[in-house]
Amino acid sequence: MSPDERSIVVGLGEIQVTQDPEAVLTCLGLGSCIGVAAYDPHAKVAGMSHIILPGDPIRNTEPSPKYALHSVPMLLKLLCKEGADPKRLVIKLAAERR
Predict the structure, then answer these.
(1) DSSP letter string, 45-87
(2) What is the DSSP code (8-state) at residue 3?
(3) Is 14 exposed, middle or buried (0-12, 13-18, 19+ CB in 10 A)?
(4) CB 35 within 8 A of CB 15
(5) Domains of the chain listed by start with CATH number
(6) Which residues, at least 6 apart from 20, have a Cβ–Cβ distance to it below 8 Å?
(7) How far apart are CA 77 and CA 23, in angstroms?
(8) 88 secondary structure, DSSP code
(9) Rounded to whole angstroms, what are the CA distances from 90 to 47, 58, 73, 84?
(10) For residue 10, what pLDDT band results from cuts at 50, 70 and 90?
């Protein structure tokens, strides 16, 4: 399997979760965005969120993974649905350094 076949690109405002041990979750061109990666080493499930903004300025819209306010809880819910335990999660943040 080539690196490209194992790559799962997490686009702007998206969340991806996988149990594929060969998969590589990738956020390209973070710029002013934040990448949140989480992994449960026991359940072998990983997820990543590509966050664009901290919160929803309108607050009347449906929850969206592009907002940190919604994205982090959505990521945790999807990971748990795949068997992750929040107590075991290893979480890392990535941002462009300015």
Answers:
(1) EEEEEEE-BSS-SSSSSPP-TTBHHHHHHHHHHHHHHTT--GG
(2) H
(3) middle
(4) no
(5) 3-95 (3.30.1330.200)
(6) 6
(7) 20
(8) G
(9) 11, 32, 15, 11
(10) very high
Tokens standing for residue 48: 């990543």
Closest CA to 63 of 52, 74, 53: 74
pLDDT tens figures, 34-70 = 999 999 999 999 999 999 988 877 776 788 899 998 9
Going 64 to 24 to 17 to 73, the CA torsion angle's sign is negative
Token pair recorded at residue 1: 């399997």
Give the residue from 74, 70, 2, 1 showing the smallest Cα distance to 38. Answer: 74
Strand arrangement, sheet containing 45-51:
15-18, 45-51, 34-40, 90-95
Judged against a pLDDT cut of 80, whether residue 2 lies above it is answered with: no
The neighbouring-strand residues paired with 39 are: 46, 90
